[in-house]
Amino acid sequence: MQSRRDILRYGLALGAASAVPMSGLFAGRAEAAPPTDLKLFVPAAPGGGWDQTARSMEQVLRANGAVTSVQVTNVPGAGGTVGLPQFVNQWKGQGNALMIGGMVMVGAIIANKAPVKLTATTPIARLTGEALALVVPAESPFKTAADFVKALKADPSKVPIAGGSAGGSDHILAGLIAKAGGGDATKVSYVAFAGGGPATAAILGNQVAAGISGYGEFAEQIKAGKMRCLAISADQRDPAIDAPTLREAGIPVDLFNWRGVFAPPGLSKEQVADITKLVADMVKSPAWAEMCKTKGWASIPIVGDSYGEFVAAETTRIEAILKDLGLAG
Q: Containing H/E element for 266?
């Protein structure tokens, strides 16, 4: 698995490489004219990481005066594979539209053998990355990640884990933790939810033994004392989070989730240039930097053609991981 350090290093390299495609993208144009009326397509339920990304984009773009209106559409289901065909087919050619997606969708497409792939979209930019958190209800008997892994190895069926859709980063991490602890990853009792809201409710309601998602999705409940974070999947401790890394807890695993945006197919070069400029300007703004700091996200932008290359490489990498975990054929 890529560590946070690896993905940041890779992002810097690809970010530098993207400078050439970006300059070529705008060549010969007196001035790019990003759309002022933006449509954001979120192929997940409200409350989750993709939805938070969309709402954060809306807030920053409005604050920057880059847009006059933003419409957010949620179409949840199966890690984005329910909404993806709708975005590709019904939003085709709309130069003012963006879909939020990321590592979760890459995995879900593979695991669900979805007929519509991300190659049907127009990759625009990677935005953020986030370590995942392993949490338990406040009253859980598991005090440490080691306690959790011991129980998981003994009988996975008695340790159900809530997370995002099957095949996503949460599911991958659950399998990796089990495998690293000497258990059978394919026997993990994983309970998939369409969004962060329902997963959080299941954890708080003691319907599951633990949960995995981006730390930002659990932060409020952790601060309120309703959940306890056993560990995070970063490769090094985050000073803002009162929890060890999985490696510190003796579990040799790290995983870094990422999120980005995709435009629909059928856009002209000018439309691609305009929507790319809108996003590129946003990620360079102080308002976006502050938003990422507030949410606990790492800003790791890759823009233009290099983002498409990154997505292709991730698809190959994740497919191999899912096969190892028995989640893909």
A: none
Mean pLDDT, rounded, for 280-301 = 92
Cα–Cα distance for residue pair 26/18, rounded to 1 Å: 13
Query: 137 by DSSP, 3-state: which?
Result: strand
pTM of the entire predicted model: 0.70
Nearest of 177, 180, 210, 216 to residue 196 by alpha carbon: 216
Return the higher-pLDDT residue of 167 and 16.
167
DSSP letter assigned to residue 245:
B
- Dig out the tokens for 145 from the structure: 């990640």
Tokens representing 241 are 């989070």
Q: What percent of the chain is modeled with pLDDT above 90?
A: 62
What is the chain's percent helix, strand, coil content, to nearest 5?
45, 20, 35
CB 39 within 8 A of CB 96: yes
Question: Tokens 């209800």 map to which residue?
Answer: 137
pLDDT 10s digits, 134-145: 999 999 999 999
CATH T-level fold of 131-232:
D-Maltodextrin-Binding Protein; domain 2 (3.40.190)
- What does the block give as tokens for 193? 């939810």
- Cα 95 from Cα 92, distance rounded (Å): 9
pLDDT at 32: 52
Average pLDDT, integer, range 307-323: 89
C-alpha dihedral, 283 to 289 to 291 to 293, nearest 10° = 140
CATH 3.30.565.10 fits 4-130+257-324, yes or no: no
Domain boundaries, the chain: 4-130+257-324, 131-232
